[in-house]
Amino acid sequence: MYACDFYLADEAFRTGRLETTTKNRTDHWARWVRYVKPLGVDPYLQNTPFQWKLRAITGFAARARTGAFGAGRTVKTCTVSGYLASVGQTIALACGTNPLKILGSDKYLPRLQISLDGWKQVDPPTIKKLPVESDIPELLVLTGISSGSSKDSAIGDLTTIAFYYLLRVGEYTTKSTRANTKRTVQFKSEDITFFKRNASKQLVCLPRSAHTNDILSADGATLKLDNQKNGYKGVCIYQEANGDDTHCPVRALGRRFIHIRKHNGHAKTFICAYWHKGTAHNVTAEDISRSLKWAGTVLKYPALRAIPIERIDTHSLRIGGACVLALAGFSDMHIQKMGRWKGETFKEYVREELHCFSAGMSRAMKQCYRFVNISGHAFHDITDSIISSQS
User: Fold this and answer.
1) What is d(CA 332, CA 344) in angstroms, rounded to the nearest whole number?
2) Alpha-carbon distance 335 to 344, whole Å?
3) CB 302, CB 277: distance < 8 Å
4) CA gyration radius for the chain?
5) What pLDDT, in 10s, does the model give residues 227-263?
6) Is pTM, for the whole model, over 0.85?
7) How far is CA 223 from each of CA 147, 218, 240, rounded to the nearest angstrom?
8) Whole-angstrom Cα distance, residue 59 to residue 215?
9) Residue 20: what pLDDT?
10) In DSSP terms, which residues pair with 174 in a beta bridge?
11) Helix %, strand %, coil % for the chain, to 5?
């Protein structure tokens, strides 16, 4: 194998799927090395007696659990698992096998797994974010219009786009602390395509140089996925105009596109870009979060919806869009495709706490259907009982 082959393989690894966890794995490994050094244990656990190896691993896990490696408080089992996974993967990459797991299995060593299972039982429940409806993006759009602020306008349009297209926050915003290792790539101007119906009512793609009026009256628009969290590449998601000239995902995309084009933005410009006094800026995830909480407060979500402000955040738009689609009767397949979920995890977004999902259930359950166990006769002769009950 030539030197260039080694370089290409290394480059592929660094830019591949594991790149997103590289920094965490490096940090966790450094903590592991510092932990085992005073114990005189080889950090790679090669030729280490089983009992020494097990005591070092479980001790490290317990130290991580107490928050000794930065949190300063007890952390959840999933965080501890992250530390262990980083250590095991690093050793496996260097030595070929993961000594934290049973040989030939994906399961952790029994003593270690018992500790993880015990901690998981006492972990507090996860406080998940709750959904919001279209009234929050609509308020933010109106706020942008009334304030005349390009930033407020961008926030209103982006929350509308995120709600209707079920976007992840990293797909339409930047983050000041964001490392350049995330797989998700923000949508850019070049990822937007507009469509308009011709005289034959057939959808026709509009050129990027189309007149502003045509862009702002388009009948539909797609967003092309460059590289998103779940690995989708080159897939387009489409939404049609909903008939509202203001509160519509296609109109919101049109306003973003025109704003970028007006300020000579190029094809690679993020859709979250806005210009203030001639200077380009980007809407951040923190901007969206603050705006959603403000809108939830104005619309009295805690009092009228029993949804606390602290449970409203950027994820609430994606959850809300999924919930509304479910309530509107769209199939699991439709929701899964729009949200680009590969597995069944999207069902977690449909919050069972919403009263709408149990509407009519008690009335339906009151109905007595007089069902019969058709397998019962196979084990007991119930002929006489049926005859006597019908006589």
Assistant:
1) 9
2) 11
3) no
4) 27
5) 555 445 667 889 999 999 999 999 999 999 999 999 9
6) no
7) 28, 14, 12
8) 61
9) 46
10) 284
11) 55, 10, 40
Domain ranges of the chain: 3-122, 135-321, 325-359
Yes or no: say if 172 and 163 are a contact pair by the CB < 8 Å rule: no
**Beta-carbon contacts of residue 97 (< 8 Å; ≥ 6 apart):** 91, 103
CA distance 188 to 115: 46
Task: Return the structure tokens found at 344.
Answer: 């069944």
The pLDDT, as a whole number, for residue 14 is 47
Q: Is the pLDDT reported for residue 374 higher than 70?
A: no
Burial class of residue 9 in the structure, from the number of CB atoms within 10 Å of its CB (0-12 exposed, 13-18 middle, 19+ buried) = exposed
Q: For 156-171, what is each residue's pLDDT tens digit? A: 999 999 999 999 999 9
**Crossing angle between the packed helical segments 110-122 and 77-95, to the nearest 10 degrees:** 150
Tell me how far apart the alpha carbons of residues 326 and 353 are, in angstroms, rounded to a whole number: 14
Q: What φ, ψ does residue 101 adopt, rounded to 5°?
A: -120, 160
In CATH terms, 135-321 corresponds, of 1.10.3470, 3.15.10, 3.30.2010, 3.90.15, to: 3.90.15
Q: What is the largest CA-CA distance in the chain?
A: 91
**pLDDT tens profile 71-115:** 788 999 999 999 999 999 999 999 999 999 998 888 999 999 999
Mean pLDDT over 14-26 rounds to 61
Please tell me whether residue 279 adopts helix, strand or coil conformation: strand
H/E segment holding residue 235: strand 235-240
Provide the residue type at 1 as one letter. M
